[in-house]
């Protein structure tokens, strides 16, 4: 079963989207974050993906009050990240009402520590965000809001985390993120072949219901929907109908 998951990216308390992760190429949307989350819930969403873009760069939870309010009032299960640098950060988000904590930079830099968190809090409470760019023949893993290069690759960390008992993987092709250019289905075939036991959430480039259906038919566990929903390309209800039809045909 494939679950469409709406996304809210926060910067200075506002709903925004970046183009390919570039903080200088930002679109700000005239939606109040809590009201937008409630709208997604009324359209049938059960999960919401929230990113603190300020925190992703600074390592501090700069949009925590907004995130806490969303978790308390929207009627959605929330997975959230941006700014997790240590275990205290994991506990802070769980205490704020988040159901799953999304860990990105530290999952790349300190995999042993994150593997220990999976063991301590359970695989259902941790989402690995291994966002990637294809460079020099490998899927590379930038960190710090995609602004810092790292040596580790996706092919190295996927088997490690699968062996550590991880379940949830959010994987974004950064070159597709915010572009409305279509998802990179080859990336998700690679992930499935490398670590078939991970539940993959596909992210980046989704522009149409055909894209959503194609990812569902490919067998991903979730499809993150950002700009496409914000720009009104289709509705959350539309996405749910398409994935239900795709799942029924498999």
Automatic annotation (TrEMBL):
Q: Mention one GO molecular function.
A: 1-(5-phosphoribosyl)-5-[(5-phosphoribosylamino)methylideneamino]imidazole-4-carboxamide isomerase activity
- Its EC number is 5.3.1.16
Pathway annotation: Amino-acid biosynthesis; L-histidine biosynthesis; L-histidine from 5-phospho-alpha-D-ribose 1-diphosphate: step 4/9
Per UniProt, the keywords (alphabetical) are: Amino-acid biosynthesis, Cytoplasm, Histidine biosynthesis, Isomerase
Which SUPFAM superfamilies does the annotation name? Ribulose-phoshate binding barrel
Q: Quick one: a GO biological-process term for this protein?
A: L-histidine biosynthetic process
Q: Show the Gene3D superfamilies listed in the entry.
A: Aldolase class I
Catalytic reaction list: 1-(5-phospho-beta-D-ribosyl)-5-[(5-phospho-beta-D-ribosylamino)methylideneamino]imidazole-4-carboxamide = 5-[(5-phospho-1-deoxy-D-ribulos-1-ylimino)methylamino]-1-(5-phospho-beta-D-ribosyl)imidazole-4-carboxamide
Q: Which domain of life is it from?
A: Bacteria
Q: Where is the active site?
A: 9, 131
Q: What is this enzyme's class at the first EC digit?
A: isomerase
Name one matching Pfam family.
His_biosynth
Q: Spell out the CDD domains in the cross-references.
A: HisA
- Compartment annotation: Cytoplasm
**Which Gene Ontology cellular-component terms appear in the entry?**
cytoplasm
- NCBIfam families per the record? 1-(5-phosphoribosyl)-5-[(5-phosphoribosylamino)methylideneamino]imidazole-4-carboxamide isomerase
- Record-stated family: Belongs to the HisA/HisF family.
- Name of the protein: 1-(5-phosphoribosyl)-5-[(5-phosphoribosylamino)methylideneamino] imidazole-4-carboxamide isomerase
């Amino acid at each position: 079963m494939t679950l469409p998951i709406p996304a809210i990216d926060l910067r200075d308390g506002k709903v925004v989207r970046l183009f390919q992760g570039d903080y200088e190429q930002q679109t700000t949307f005239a939606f109040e974050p809590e009201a937008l989350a409630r709208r997604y819930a009324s359209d049938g969403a059960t999960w919401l993906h929230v990113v603190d873009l300020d925190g992703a760069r600074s390592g501090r939870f700069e949009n925590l009050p907004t995130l806490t309010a969303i978790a308390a009032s929207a009627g959605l299960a929330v997975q959230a990240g941006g700014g997790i640098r240590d275990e205290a950060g994991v506990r802070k988000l769980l205490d704020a009402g988040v159901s799953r904590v999304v860990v990105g930079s530290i999952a790349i830099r300190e995999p042993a520590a994150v593997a220990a968190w999976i063991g301590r809090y359970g695989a259902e409470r941790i989402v690995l965000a291994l966002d990637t760019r294809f460079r020099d023949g490998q899927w590379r893993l930038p960190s710090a809001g995609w602004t810092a290069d790292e040596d580790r690759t996706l092919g190295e960390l996927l088997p490690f985390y699968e062996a550590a008992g991880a379940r949830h993987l959010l994987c974004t092709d950064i070159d597709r993120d915010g572009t409305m250019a279509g998802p990179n289905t080859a990336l998700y075939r690679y992930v499935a072949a490398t670590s078939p036991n991970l539940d993959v959430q596909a992210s980046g480039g989704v522009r149409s219901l055909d894209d959503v259906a194609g990812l569902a038919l490919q067998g991903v566990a979730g499809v993150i929907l950002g700009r496409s929903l914000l720009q009104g390309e289709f509705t959350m209800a539309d996405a749910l109908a398409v994935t239900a039809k795709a799942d029924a045909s498999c």
